[in-house]
Amino acid sequence: MTNLIDGRAIAEQIHSETAQRVTALKSRGVQPSLMFVRVGDDPASKVYVGMKEKTAARLGILSETRVLPDSTTESELLALIHKLNADSAVHGILVQAPLPRHISETNIYSTVLPQKDVDGFHPENVGKLMLGDKTGFLPCTPAGVHELLIRSGTKMDGAEVVVLGRGNIVGKPMAAILIQKDKNANATVTVCHSKTRDISAHCRRADILIAALGSPEFVKADMIKPGAVVIDVGVNRISDPAAKGGSRLVGDVDFTAVQKVAGKITPNPGGVGPMTIAMLMQNTVRAAELLAKS
Ligand code: GUN
Q1: pTM of structure
Q2: Residue 294: what pLDDT?
Q3: Residues 108 and 147 in one domain
Q4: Whose C-alpha lies nearest to ligand 1, atom 9?
């Protein structure tokens, strides 16, 4: 029997729920819409936004991408965001990271209207997550990991969870989601990072290990408690002369070895990635529903 957590299949379940909500909105005359903003030429960002656009179209969500040159100033980007904030036909705004170094991501993400912040990066939404206030938007990747855990029947109540990585996009919000006094949470969470002493010792205690540190195949089999649930959030490009184009993508987990010890594990690709997109679509439809109600 396989011990894989099939992110593609779970994302498809969520897509079919989202598509039904899109149909319901359209029957009330509301066309859910999502605006992407991409600055510069980052090849990975092009691929990610392209995938999100395709999924939006498949679910009946209108989407458009504004592509701005690398030379765009912060005030030009802020002006575009103000315009999109004011456009009542736009329900969600996603400014793809990374941004050029001369633009402050903090300034950009705190300018997107919280009600259109389908990325969950606005300080108001970050604050609501910490407070357990469910009226905000959750960031898509940690929300997707949480949904994978729920839909794979993983017990979180009282579980020892170890999160590797303390970034604002995954590690910190992931910990915040799982420590809430709530159904499908109530976990004891340890967040490990570059200054943690003896990461392996922490990992070996984990019932659920979530790797989001951005280090290729960092998690080895001897760091896993037998039977633990392992979630690999990493996307790392490593050079490989034998691969097409001289490089290939690997996760933060040494999958082949860890799969033998883990109780359940996400494949990579095909684990967390599709869930991030599923949660983005779900957030967008919710933004449209909330606006239609107000
Ligand atoms: N870059 C990598 N992950 C993300 C994400 O979740 N949202 C945005 N906007 N950019 C990203």
Answers
A1: 0.97
A2: 82
A3: no
A4: 96
